[in-house]
Amino acid sequence: MTESPSSARPTGVAGLKYAISVPPHGDYGDPKRLAELAREAEDAGWDGFFLWDHLMFMRGFNGPIVDPWISLAAVATRTRTIRFGTMVTPLARRRPWKVARETVTLDHLSDGRFILGVGLGYPADSEFEDFGEDGDARVRADKLDEALDIIVGLWSGEPFSYKGRYFQVEECTFLPRPVQKPRIPIWVAGYWPNRRPFRRAAQWDGVLPGRLSLERRKAWTPTMIPTETYGEIVRYVEENRSSDAPYDFAIGGYTDGDGGDRDRERVTAYADLGLTWWFENLHGFRGGLDQMRERIRLGPPRVDGV
């Protein structure tokens, strides 16, 4: 059996892991291509490969979009060691029992390499309201919490029932259990400075924070959460944790891959605050597919000499 991949908070860059974060649309809107990129990432020494989970991405977006879950099945069969998952799935627009089945299936297919990333989802209009779903943030948050309780309950492999405001489950037993013990890791995303997503994240296994400013809504540019803000997030999550189990702190960022001082300084600054996973974001505004493929080939921005 495979143990959970979460690691204790490191000192500096020790134990830091590196992942590729890919939107499954536009140039990446091809499941075969995504599986190839995951294999290339594994060969280049990356530790993780994660896909966004969108139905339409943004109103007005007319490019190809592929389903991340089916694409991840292809990723599982084309790789051997790399961790993978969704970052993040808006559980409020999913049936939690279906997600429970899908996640356990992917966990078995990959011999225990799957990580489930969850959040409210963004934007509410194109991802929820355009399909007749309630886009209210509070409703989506309540559905997210109920869905997490149900998924974990079904993962237990024991008789389980649930009566919530939005979801109900008559007593049933879901088998098989996940490969990973005690269960599949759950990471929670949120936009700082909203506090509720980070209180939620503190109760699970990891956190992936984001910052959505007015400027970013107008023009997608490669910006990152400032280190002082990231330090606030880490402290807030730690203050709200009720367990001393290992925990993962992630961030999405941008590096050149040339091993230069700029990459080293950028990654180290966050690692010194408690970062355990660096997510290299691949987006259209960084360059075309060939350029991003080259960034994958250059490998992770390792600053620990390993």
Question: What layout of secondary structure does this protein have?
Answer:
Blueprint: E1 17-22, H1 31-43, E2 48-51, H2 68-78, E3 83-90, H3 96-109, E4 114-119, H4 124-127, H5 137-155, E5 160-163, E6 168-172, E7 186-191, H6 196-202, E8 206-210, H7 214-218, H8 227-239, E9 248-253, H9 261-271, E10 277-281, H10 289-298
Parallel strand pairs: 1-2, 1-10, 2-3, 3-4, 4-7, 7-8, 8-9, 9-10
Antiparallel strand pairs: 5-6
Helix pairs in contact: 1-2, 3-5, 6-8
**Strands ordered across the widest β-sheet:** 1-2-3-4-7-8-9-10
Provide the CATH architecture.
Answer: Alpha-Beta Barrel
Uncertain runs with pLDDT below 50, 5 residues or more? 1-11, 214-220
Mean pLDDT: 92
Give the distance, in angstroms, between the N- and C-terminal Cα atoms: 27 Å
User: How many independent structural domains?
Assistant: 1
Q: Describe the largest sheet.
A: 8 strands, parallel, barrel
- Under CATH, the topology can be stated as TIM Barrel
Count of alpha and pi helical runs: 10
Structural class: alpha/beta
The helix-strand sequence is EHEHEHEHHEEEHEHHEHEH
Portion in helices: 25-40%
State the name of the first-level CATH class. Answer: Alpha Beta
- Any idea what the CATH superfamily is called? Luciferase-like domain
Rg calc: 18 Å
Q: Determine the strand fraction and express it as a percent band.
A: 15-25%
Notes on the structure:
It is a single chain. With 306 residues, the protein is an alpha/beta fold. It has a single domain (17-298), classed as Luciferase-like domain (TIM Barrel), CATH 3.20.20.30. Helices cover 35% and strands 18% of the residues. The protein is built from ten helices and ten strands. It has helices at 31-43, 68-78, 96-109, 124-127, 137-155, 196-202, 214-218, 227-239, 261-271, 289-298, and strands at residues 17-22, 48-51, 83-90, 114-119, 160-163, 168-172, 186-191, 206-210, 248-253, 277-281. The strands form two sheets. An eight-stranded parallel beta barrel has the order 1-2-3-4-7-8-9-10, surrounded by six helices. It has a two-stranded antiparallel ribbon with strand order 5-6. Helix 1 links the parallel strand 1 (17-22) and strand 2. The protein is globular, with a radius of gyration of 18 Å. The relative contact order is 0.16. The model is unreliable at 1-11 and 214-220 (pLDDT under 50).
